[in-house]
Amino acid sequence: MTAQGFDPELFLQMGRDVLAQQPFSLLLGAELTHLKPGEVELQLVLKDELRQQHGFAHGGVVSYLADNALTYAGGTAMRVPVVTSEYKINYLKPATGERLVARAKAIGIGKTQAVCRCEVYAVLGHEETLCALAQGTITKMGEAPPG
Amino acid sequence: MTAQGFDPELFLQMGRDVLAQQPFSLLLGAELTHLKPGEVELQLVLKDELRQQHGFAHGGVVSYLADNALTYAGGTAMRVPVVTSEYKINYLKPATGERLVARAKAIGIGKTQAVCRCEVYAVLGHEETLCALAQGTITKMGEAPPG
Amino acid sequence: MTAQGFDPELFLQMGRDVLAQQPFSLLLGAELTHLKPGEVELQLVLKDELRQQHGFAHGGVVSYLADNALTYAGGTAMRVPVVTSEYKINYLKPATGERLVARAKAIGIGKTQAVCRCEVYAVLGHEETLCALAQGTITKMGEAPPG
Amino acid sequence: MTAQGFDPELFLQMGRDVLAQQPFSLLLGAELTHLKPGEVELQLVLKDELRQQHGFAHGGVVSYLADNALTYAGGTAMRVPVVTSEYKINYLKPATGERLVARAKAIGIGKTQAVCRCEVYAVLGHEETLCALAQGTITKMGEAPPG
Description:
The structure is a homotetramer of 147-residue chains.
Chain A: H1 8-20, H2 23-28, E1 31-36, E2 39-45, H3 59-78, E3 82-91, E4 99-109, E5 113-124, E6 127-140
Antiparallel strand pairs in A: 1-2, 2-4, 3-6, 4-5, 5-6
């Protein structure tokens, strides 16, 4: 803990604890590799079972990563439990390679919502290729889902 | 119409063959339950490993289902190999229950692109609850992804 | 007023009064032609100054119409003052013709948000051509915009 | 680089000539203040007739600016005539002030499509406030709109 009470290691560990409680994130093998308020890096190894019929990562895997990265960015920016209300994603290139890395940031941060952006890269060796762009709204839990 | 060589059973079977070639769809247990040109129903049983920390279906699962249903709707509408270029999804309610059902339709159908819409329902017993709305662009393969 | 206190004529008139208070809607010549809770039809004549360099309606005009129709649908569904939080729009065809008609519905209605869908048609004589699809989130005023 | 025949002044002037051919852009008073391949700044003075009933810029005005800026970014990146296929916009704050400035960039650039991002700022004196984020697909003319 620093004088301001922010401990980067502890913060990352808390994020990893949340991830470890998501069975679907475990199934996909997601790893949280960077986390600070409003900023996150989430990765996964592109195992065979995460691919579609052409050998690329299935769009659902890229979407999962973007969705979850957006949620971490928004949740750590607002420091409250959150849900993803909505997002859009543009696929730029087939996601091939050894792993996928998503990096997301909270851009517009309010009391009940944060609008976040995310880039997803396909990684092969030391080379990263941008393969998707996402943008979405993360909402304080209890505020968002209609109903 | 069989006179024109359209066989509904064969059409559905061809769709299932494609799904069976997607390792990620097998991992998630997706089942194609209806398919005709421009119209699809895709389902999955909500197994424990598809949930997040609150017991709901992970957003990535709902997204996967919407993404894949949109792709089937667009691909069967245009009758060419396709990719999902982009989509947006709004989560309406937590996706709980026994299974998820996505129904998608191609609305604006062109030569190289189809704009499609999808609804995702959570099913418990005989009751369906609308839990997500998606809209996206499906593009003829080789036309869409930049690069 | 009926027994339930809902007067369709009065409801439409109240909607028109709101529209008349929007200088931008007056500039574009928007007309509210149908309004009931969660359902709206908004039109405009495609004057020359609403076009782009190819003679079609400018995308900004189609977007205005979709945005405003989504807002009416969400606002009348929740019966509170609202703002548009976000939306996405797919342009399907060039918007030509004499007028544009947007029809929107609230689909997922909650206490603080409504997720709505909209179709925009270009009208020439008696023929309507679907030219855009939109989907977005309408939020109770004071709840939504970050900051 | 002038050696390669790229003249920044001429490029900006060509962009302004296109804008001058859009009656709707003239109606709204849009000004192109920066343009290079894949990068644009588009502004307008927030005249009274561009506002809604609360005195803020109408969402349709913010959308127009984002839509048009995305189109310029994509069109100058690909150097071909283009149309906007689709975009999504998140409104962050009410757009007040004297003028609005939209800045857009092409991020994923292909032969037939460019995926672009845009930020819209409200300007009061020397202060800029981020009020909207957009992301969309710009497509080579003749490739995109279904039909």
